[in-house]
Amino acid sequence: MFDQILGLPAHPLIIHFAVVLTPLFVAVAAGYALLPRWRPYLAWAVVLLALAAPAAVYTAKESGESLKAARFATAEGELGARITTHQSFANPLLLSVLGLTAVALLLVFATRPSRESVGRDRFGRAVTLALSGLTLALAAVAGYYVFQAGDSGARAVWGV
């Protein structure tokens, strides 16, 4: 399923979604956590990116595994080491993006005013601050892993 698109290897085509959507999700989630006045404008973007970024990362991971099995299963030496390094960032990236998704969506829910508490957070300031801090931490982790995955993939392909 994740092997080819129109006869071309799927991974080089699919990774661009993860490379664009994940940093965008990291930035928007961090902005949502840090800028309370912008939350009404950013909430929709956080929710959409929370759905799209993990899907893109998962698809990139699966297509990478298919590409490796189909074309690089016997790769050894420097190329094999570069592919292994690149592949080692896939699971941490996926897990960090999933964690960011869960926490960012909780933060959006927690900061949406309810009918009973117009102008206040649903669960109180302490919960909002904790979720904001966790969102920032997971955004940093996801940002680190998307950079490492992209950089190591580029080095594997271009031999830099």
How are the SSEs placed, and which strands pair?
Layout: E1 4-5, E2 8-9, H1 10-34, H2 39-71, H3 77-87, H4 90-111, H5 125-158
Antiparallel strand pairs: 1-2
InterPro entries: DUF2231_TM
Protein name: DUF2231 domain-containing protein
Domain DUF2231: 7-158
Residues in β-strands, percent = under 5%
**Tally of discrete structural domains:** 1
How much is the radius of gyration in Å? 18 Å
| Poorly predicted parts | none
Biggest sheet strand order reads: 1-2
Helix content: over 70%
Biggest pleated-sheet summary: 2 strands, antiparallel
Secondary structure tally: strands: 2
InterPro entries: DUF2231_TM
Transmembrane segments: 13-34, 41-60, 93-111, 123-147
Domain DUF2231: 7-158
Pfam families: DUF2231
Characterise this structure.
This protein is mainly α and 160 residues long. It has one domain (4-158). It contains five helices and two strands; from the N terminus they run E-E-H-H-H-H-H. Strand 1 (4-5) and strand 2 (8-9) form a beta hairpin. Residues 7-158 form the DUF2231 domain. Pfam families: DUF2231 (PF09990). This is DUF2231 domain-containing protein.
Give a brief rundown of this model.
This protein is mainly α and 160 residues long. It has one domain. The chain contains five helices and two strands; from the N terminus they run E-E-H-H-H-H-H.
Notable traits:
78% helix, membrane, DUF2231_TM, single chain, two-stranded antiparallel ribbon, 2% strand, elongated, 160 residues, mainly alpha
